[in-house]
Design goal:
The chain is mainly β. The chain has one helix and nine strands; from the N terminus they run αβββββββββ. Strands 1-2-3-5-6-7-8-9 form an eight-stranded antiparallel beta barrel. A hairpin with a 2-residue loop joins β7 and β8.
Length: about 120
């Protein structure tokens, strides 16, 4: 009986965690209007990998990615006007929706709203 309770609790915890793996389309408001970015997330345990693409910064590889339940964090390196920069993302998934914040130099940040497409 005790094992049944443990297994039930474990199943409930696993079922409540968001399925972050897959393709997500995100938008954010920038100084020149709406920005778009696509994320392709791969999850292996608590490790997050994949890539992301935007029309402004092109394709970047997801590095240092971690998943903890519905929370995720990762970095990407991107080139903007011949300058390479590192952007740090943190976020939280809620079903098929996700909110991410990207931070770059000087504490500046952008809030992204994403929907899972596959």
């Amino acid at each position: 009986m005790k094992w049944l309770l443990v297994l039930t609790a474990l199943f409930a915890f696993t079922a409540s965690a968001a399925d972050i793996a897959g393709t997500w389309k995100a938008t954010a408001q920038g100084p020149n209007g709406t920005m778009e970015r696509t994320f392709l997330f791969k999850v292996d345990g608590d490790k997050l990998t994949g890539e992301t693409t935007s029309s402004l910064l092109g394709k970047s590889i997801i590095e240092d990615g971690k998943v903890d339940g519905d929370n995720l964090s990762f970095t990407i390196k991107a080139k903007f006007q011949d300058n390479e920069m590192t952007l740090r993302y943190t976020g939280k998934a809620n079903g098929n929706e996700m909110t991410l914040t990207s931070e770059f130099g000087g504490g500046q940040g952008v809030e992204w709203h994403a929907k899972k497409v596959s």
